[in-house]
Structure formats: structure tokens, C-alpha cells
């Protein structure tokens, strides 16, 4: 969509501006009574290397305006990826934004916050009118670079940086030096074996087959499943709920006896529930160990992408039945 001239719609303009990904900063100063003042701002940018200068802009309606107009010093904190709560705190008007925060004092006695990615202490060199904002250009008097991964803002949402895969493709330890190292099936298989080995050992120790393990954990996660649905979900692993398997689950005291129909709900007995919890705990511990080099977002993304891979392969008709949950 394009718009020109005086017909520019503020909402669409804002949304188009949001396509520019930025970092997030908190700019601080103090007012004439010595009270600390600050706000979240993503209008920060570099201006000049020599002399070192930066800029940011402040809405004329901002409650912080009198302090930034009166004080000739400010500090810009480039927030780290884990500082979103702080960004929210400083974007809220009328609260004591500094409550409970540990602070140092910088040039001009300006409050300095901890834990950020970089910090620039500035003397205000220029102030310019810029429509409904005032642009502050600061000459950098001192700075710190802590090198924590930055918080990102894009399209009105917080995000985190994900380095391009191409730049990383050949870094890290190779698990195998053959062509297979980049074959998804091989990587998934190898990862699955590492994740699954402790569960297999646990099942072997208790004399439980893999299909039994699948049914127990399925029923623990989704107690409302019918025999037919369990059969369909098992089919995704290449197994099925055969009459022999159903009988074994009942005879072992793990599943309540039913009428044997596809529509009958399969219900775990308390004993079956206990066993499923024990195996589930081993599986979760294995997941934690195998993914210890990933952070929460990376793990969430990995799971989401794997679900898409499974959906994609189901959609090609190579497998039958329903999608992953
Ligand atoms: C990610 C983000 C970026 C923001 N960037 C700016 C900005 O560059 N300039 C600005 O004036 N307000 C910006 N704001 C809004 C202010 O943080 C918000 O209006 C704040 O309540 C102002 O506080 P004050 O009225 O106490 O000064 C931003 C808010 C968020 C969440």
C-alpha cells in the first residue's frame, strides 16, 4: 500500500515505520530537583564518529520533556535481550520507574542502569524541533560496551537477534565429516537417538516396549483420547494400537478395561499414571540435557519448525492421520 502528501494516515505511517527494526534504549537524566527521570526510546541512532555523537527524539507530550530540556546531560542504555521488563517499566507513564533498581551515577550525576548491552553518557550538544518530537543530539563523553545480546523491536513487537544461518553454517563442532552432516533426516535421526536413549534405557529397565511407552505418555498428556485416536497418533510413529497391545496395557494394570471399540475412551489406571509420570520425567531430563546449549526462544523455535517439518511431510501423503499437537 502507498500513500502520498497530506492524505497520509497516521496509523499506516506508524506501521510502515515499524518495518525498520531497531534496538531498544532507556534514556535517563535527572530533573532540577535531583529526581531521576527516564523513558524507553527506540529513536536512538549514531550521528558522528569524530566527534562521537548520537541522537534520539522525545515526544513533546512526554512527561520527561522538562527534565531533558533543563539538564544538559543524559545517558542512553542499549538494552540487552533479557531486559524487556525494564523496557516495559520505562515505557509506563506516571510510575516510579527507578523503584528497586540498582544505579550508579555518571557524568552530570545522571543515573546509570546495569545489565545493558552498551551505555553512552552524553552532553546535550543540540536540540532540534522535529514536528511533534524534539531531537536531542548528544556528544558522547564516556561509554561502556558490555556485549550482551541486544533486545530488538520490530513491527511493534519485541524480538531477539538470530544470526543468519549462512554465516554460521560451518562453525561449531562437526558431528560427522561426510556429506550427511547437512542432511536433515540424518541430523534429526541423530538428535532423536541422543534424546531417546535414556527413555529407551528406562523402558527396558521396566520391561516396557516402545509402543507401550507411546500409549502411556499419550494418555497422560491427553486423557480424553479414544482407542481410535490413539491408534491414529501411534500410526505417526509407524506403530498401531493392535488388539494384542491393547490387551497388554489392560493385563498389566496400566489402562482400564474398555469395550474394545475405536470409540471407547482409553483411561490410565493410577498405576499406569504413575508409570507414565516416571517415564515422562526421564524424557524431560533427556530433553533438558540434549538442548542445554539452546536458550528458551531457540528451543521454542526449534520445536515450532520441527512441527512444520512433520506437518509438511504428512501433507505430502507419505504418512496418514492427524497433525502433531
Ligand atoms: C519500544 C518503545 C520505544 C519507544 N520509543 C520512544 C521514543 O523514541 N521517543 C519517545 O518520546 N517515546 C518513545 N516511547 C514511548 C515512551 O517510552 C513512553 O511514552 C513513556 O511513557 C514516556 O514516559 P514519560 O511520559 O514519563 O516521559 C517508546 C516506547 C516503547 C515501548
TrEMBL record:
UniProt-recorded Gene Ontology molecular function terms: FMN binding; riboflavin reductase (NADPH) activity
Pfam families in the record: Flavin_Reduct (PF01613)
Domain of life: Bacteria
Alphabetical UniProt keywords: Oxidoreductase
Domain Flavin reductase like: 17-160
Family to which this protein belongs: Belongs to the non-flavoprotein flavin reductase family.
Gene3D superfamilies assigned: Electron Transport, Fmn-binding Protein, Chain A (2.30.110.10), Winged helix-like DNA-binding domain superfamily/Winged helix DNA-binding domain (1.10.10.10)
Entry keyword annotation includes Glycoprotein: no
Keyword match Oxidoreductase: yes
Protein name: Flavin reductase
Amino acid at each position: 500500500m502507498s500513500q502520498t502528501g497530506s492524505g497520509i494516515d497516521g496509523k499506516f505511517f506508524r506501521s510502515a515505520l515499524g518495518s525498520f527494526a531497531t534496538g531498544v534504549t532507556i534514556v535517563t537524566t535527572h530533573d532540577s530537583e535531583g529526581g531521576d527521570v527516564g523513558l524507553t526510546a527506540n529513536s536512538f541512532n549514531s550521528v558522528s564518529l569524530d566527534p562521537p555523537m548520537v541522537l534520539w527524539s522525545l515526544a513533546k507530550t512526554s512527561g520527561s520533556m522538562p527534565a531533558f530540556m533543563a539538564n544538559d546531560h543524559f545517558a542512553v542504555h542499549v538494552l540487552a535481550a533479557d531486559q524487556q521488563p525494564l523496557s516495559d517499566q520505562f515505557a509506563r507513564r506516571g510510575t516510579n520507574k527507578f523503584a528497586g533498581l540498582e544505579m550508579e551515577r555518571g557524568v552530570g550525576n545522571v543515573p546509570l542502569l546495569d545489565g545493558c548491552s552498551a551505555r553512552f553518557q552524553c552532553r546535550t550538544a543540540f536540540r532540534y524541533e522535529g514536528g511533534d518530537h524534539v531531537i536531542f543530539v548528544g556528544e558522547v563523553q564516556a561509554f561502556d560496551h558490555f556485549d550482551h545480546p541486544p533486545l530488538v523491536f520490530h513491527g511493534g513487537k519485541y524480538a531477539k537477534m538470530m544470526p543468519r544461518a549462512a554465516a554460521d553454517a560451518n562453525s561449531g563442532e562437526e558431528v560427522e565429516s561426510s556429506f550427511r552432516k547437512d542432511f536433515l533426516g540424518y541430523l534429526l535421526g541423530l538428535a532423536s537417538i541422543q534424546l531417546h536413549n535414556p527413555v529407551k534405557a528406562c523402558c527396558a529397565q521396566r520391561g516396557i516396549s516402545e509402543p507401550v511407552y507411546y500409549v502411556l505418555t499419550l494418555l497422560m498428556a491427553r486423557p480424553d483420547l479414544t482407542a481410535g485416536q490413539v491408534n491414529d497418533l501411534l500410526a505417526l510413529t509407524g506403530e498401531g494400537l493392535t488388539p494384542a497391545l491393547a490387551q497388554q496395557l489392560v493385563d498389566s494394570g496400566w489402562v482400564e478395561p474398555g469395550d474394545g471399540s475405536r470409540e471407547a475412551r482409553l483411561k490410565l489406571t493410577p498405576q499406569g499414571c504413575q508409570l507414565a509420570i516416571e517415564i515422562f520425567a526421564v524424557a524431560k531430563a533427556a530433553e533438558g540435557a540434549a538442548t542445554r546449549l539452546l536458550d528458551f526462544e531457540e528451543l521454542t523455535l526449534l520445536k515450532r519448525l520441527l512441527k512444520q517439518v512433520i506437518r509438511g511431510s504428512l501433507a505430502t501423503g507419505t504418512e496418514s492421520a492427524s497433525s502433531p499437537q
